[in-house]
Amino acid sequence: MTQKNISKAEQLAVFIRQLERAAEYLEESFLICEPFVTSTTSSRSELREYEALTARFARLSDLLVQKVLRYIGTVESSEAGSIIDIMHRAEKQAIASSAAELSEIRELRNEIAHEYATRDIEEVAADVVRWTPVLIAMTERAIEYAQELTARLP
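The structure corresponding to this sequence follows.
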């Protein structure tokens, strides 16, 4: 949700800080989980770490797509459009390598957030580990893009 009575540049700065913090938390979980995500059996502590990893992945994905990319669209064209529009615009802005990659991340986020998973947490965590570097890279490019946009705003 955007804050009232602050400029667009200030709102983007708030979102940038939120993205940076969320990315740090995800990277922390990623570094913990990456070494043991391929094991066939998981301990209770590993399962707890998987839960943190998947939750942080879903949170960063949401923040990136639903807040930052949507808000950038609103700032640039007065209308964010649909999720598909946002994904295609992110590709054109070179934030996402492709709209399809962002769509894959979004589908994995939905599986986590809405508990659609018919798979074991270990399988979901393995996908999250695979997609985390891509999400982090997109986040970094979104931060750069938002900072450049902020510099152009009145």
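The mean pLDDT is 91.
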